[in-house]
Write a structure and sequence with these properties.
Blueprint lengths: L2 E6 L5 H10 L3 E7 L10 H4 L10 E2 L2 H6 L4 E4 L7 H13 L3 E4 L14 H14 L2 E4 L10 H7 L4 E12 L6 H8 L16 H5 L1 H10 L9 E8 L4 E2 L4 E2 L4 E12 L2 E11 L16 E10 L2 E5 L8 H14 L2 H6 L3 E2 L18
Parallel strand pairs: 1-2, 1-4, 2-3, 4-5, 5-6, 6-15, 7-12
Antiparallel strand pairs: 7-13, 8-11, 9-10, 11-12, 13-14
Helix pairs in contact: 1-10, 4-5
């Protein structure tokens, strides 16, 4: 059965989602939403740089897209700076009977214990009312720190700790708002950007820690522990998103840890650099400019590095592709899922079925 899909936004993730929807044999792209008036009327294939038209023109008319009655929306709009407005959008889609896979807000990846119960219930109730499902995921938070680590724990005889890393050079990551305003790159070290306000990390990545804990049947101590270590640039640095002056923040390592009886059992560990030479004492990729790493201590001791890069060699571009495709490839499973909010723990095995290149 062909599923009719609307792509919601055409930014750094959305344009890759359009290409993915076009590639999947069971999906048909029927609409595209854009926030930029300059993109209205442009063909989806043009917006996705496919080199060909898809016969679907972008619009900023929300009601016109809802009137198409799509089976699903692939929602990749920026949510980091408009969390509650984005939740309102998702609730609206669900109430209108449209299934949704979304890259954010990431706190809905596994919201139990992360956001108030009444907010979770509001989202879930909207899905039940509209007989539609919502799945929020991607690569991080997402596959690299939910399905991947939980799959590896199936090889364990004893688990002492699960630690999930993102180790990355963000110098080619184009998200100016995220880089400067949310992370604080290029700002004084004594300034506290949004992400490092106490409690925010536990919302943004606490869902990772709590979902792994749920998968392992752990009851965590409250609250989660947060730790942030910043590094100042030794010289001026230019990135695609922000210029970083010497003495301002150029790298950061942050951790969100879940403990049981005071012992760290599940840890999310992010090391973000803007130059590969920064802080060599912090964990570094085995190869390339970045990786996701899972370390499981116990019996046996296991480490896996998940390294990705685009055809042009850039791991930030491939990071956008993997984020998009985790959603696109999940559409069929989410449409078939029970109504309401569904997490990675609720879905079956998702694969790239139908995407093997033709000779």
């Amino acid at each position: 059965m062909t599923l009719r899909v609307v792509e919601w936004s055409t930014g750094t993730v959305g344009r890759h989602a359009i290409a993915g929807i076009d590639a999947r044999p069971e999906l048909e792209l029927v609409g595209v939403w854009v926030s930029d008036p300059a993109k209205v009327g442009r063909d989806a294939g043009d917006l996705a740089d496919l080199g060909r038209d898809l016969g679907v023109q972008a619009t900023n008319d929300r009601d016109a897209l809802i009137a198409l009655k799509p089976d699903a929306i692939v929602h990749t709009a920026m949510t980091d700076d408009r969390i509650f407005e984005a939740i309102d959008d998702l609730v609206f889609f669900l109430e209108n009977g449209i299934n949704v896979v979304s890259s954010g807000p990431v706190l809905l990846q596994f919201p139990t214990g992360v956001v108030p119960d009444d907010l979770v219930q509001r989202v879930h109730a909207a899905g039940v009312q509209g007989n539609a499902s919502l799945h929020v995921n991607g690569i991080d938070p997402g596959f690299a720190n939910d399905i991947l680590p939980l799959s590896f724990t199936s090889l364990s005889q004893r688990i002492d700790q699960v630690r999930c890393y993102e180790i990355a050079d963000y110098s080619t990551y184009y998200q100016p708002v995220v880089m400067r305003e949310i992370f604080g790159f290029g700002k004084p070290l004594d300034e506290t950007p949004m992400l490092f306000t106490p409690g925010v990390l536990s919302m943004a990545w606490g869902s990772v820690v709590r979902q792994i804990a749920a998968g392992l049947d752990l009851v965590l101590d409250e609250p989660l522990n947060e730790h942030v270590e910043k590094y100042a640039a030794e010289e001026d640095i230019s990135t695609v998103s922000v210029d970083i002056a010497a003495g301002t923040m150029a790298a950061v390592r942050f951790q969100v840890a879940g403990t049981v009886d005071g012992v760290e059992r599940v840890v999310l560990d992010h090391i973000t650099r803007t130059h590969p030479a920064q802080r060599p004492d912090w964990p570094t990729p085995t190869t390339g400019d970045g990786c996701y790493r899972v370390e499981i201590t116990g019996e046996p001791m296991m480490t896996v590095d998940f390294v990705h890069k685009g055809e042009n060699g850039d791991h930030n571009i491939s990071g956008m592709i993997t984020t998009a495709m985790r959603l696109v490839n999940a559409v069929e499973a989410v449409v078939a899922a029970r109504p309401g909010l569904v997490t990675a723990l609720d879905l079956p095995l998702i694969t790239g079925r139908g995407l093997v290149a033709k000779a």
